[in-house]
Amino acid sequence: MPQVVKAGSRPPWVGLAAAVWVQFAAGSAYNFPLYSSALKSVLGYNQQQVTILGVANDIGENVGILPGIACNKFPPWMVLSVGTLACFLGYGVLSLAVSQTVENMPYWVLWLALCIATNSNAWFGTAVLVTNMRNFPLSRGTVAGLLKGYVGLSAAVYTEIFSMVLNKSASKLLLFLTIGLPILCFAMMYFIRPCIPSSVDNSYEHGQFLFTQGASVVLGIFLLTTTILDDTFTLSQAIRYLFIGIMVIFMISPLAIPVKMTLFPATSQNLAGPISSSDQLASDEGETNPTEPLLSPSSSASNLTSLQDGEDSSDVDLLLAIGEGAVKKKRRPKRGEDFNFRQAIIKADFWLLWLVYFVGVGTGVTVLNNLAQIGIAQGVDDTTILLSLFSFTNFLGRLSGGAVSEHFVRSRTIPRTVWMTVTQVIMIGVFLLYASALDGTLYAATALLGICYGVQFAIMIPTASELFGLKHFGVIYNFMLLGNPIGAIFFSAWLAGDVYDEEASKQGGTSCVGAACFRLTFLVLAGMCGLGTLLGIILTLRIRPVYQMLYSGGSFRIPTSTNH
Fold it and tell me: Structure pTM?
């Protein structure tokens, strides 16, 4: 007799709370501006070499096809274990080089080590994102925005640790990444596991997400405030450690939800409804399921279900079922149903979404990779606050992008890609503002860019899952992420790096000061966002009928899947 599933909802929320910590580890690539200056000074690299290392940083972070495939074949803990090993090996080599424990390390070794180190982010992020989106399929926009928001916020967390605990030492930071992050992920991987999701939309779950979002906003404000205080005033070491302790409390706040469910199980389950977990399978074969229907499904319907659920059904069984009228012949999936990667990649909507995302994140990551040099070129010597500001607004963009798009897609069936298009219009103005280099505009432009950059992530993820399904989401999502490193190669390495070094040579050195250092780069980036806006409009018009079908009832309707 098959095992019986009992009602309950605690394990999915435990997994989400653990995923928050893994997402902080998955943001380690944002540390590159913190130690890029050490690479330049200690190892004697020029800006072009540092920029190419920045490309390695982006390639490693976003090349996640293997993690995407692994998510469909192995449990989350195995995927996280691979990421943990990559983190230890990659950052370990960088730590040895920057601390000069190993001298004269070849440039190509460092480039490869940085790729491996940041590729751990792809394994971490894919494992927790795919698992939690499958655990909460009715709130995929909110989950995507929340988890990717914590990744964006991780830059501010690392900046806080870098400034207050590690005394702005690049070698200590790399040692922390080498040892601390693997320990953290090993501690969390047990709790991240697939659970049977809820099939009913309920307000109680929305309230829990609202609490988690509010806690993350408070954490972001706290991090930005304390970073500014530490940069403005001379704080004692005791106060610094107090700030770190408060930061940790805010970071564990999502755990309050499963704790509350444990202390008040009756209230939580009555309000939450029948949400089941794979951790709560009853092993007692004599127990009956109270929700079991009175009439058993017919044999034809049972054949249909088994054929739809099992991809490895034999052709003979399929032909027999077709002859009996139990199933229809296979057909290609429609938008909104489950696509495999080969079926998705031949769709025009797939490539339109990829191109819009490529423009949005490729232009944004160019500024992020060169943020320290942009600040110095415009007269800001200490770029710590600048990085924290970008991190906080990037987090706000990811969080609000998921929440706002979720609201409007449910209330008015407005496609999420509208918000990618709107933010790219804003980015045109932001890059023109950067190019002008007017006094007092650097921080405002960085804040606006951080929000717009974050929105691109928060919108792409649920859009891809809604158009092409969750079954093969890991591979599709990670292919979309390739827009980030490819954009970094085109716009950061080939454009920004060359323009900067050419202007620096005109000034007779390796460093450049003045608006001309990046002006041409910013003008090109503004033009690219104009192209991205046009493509975003086309994509939105094409997929509007899909969203009207999926959200016609005010909440997500899971379409009938096809066997493919």
Answer: 0.76
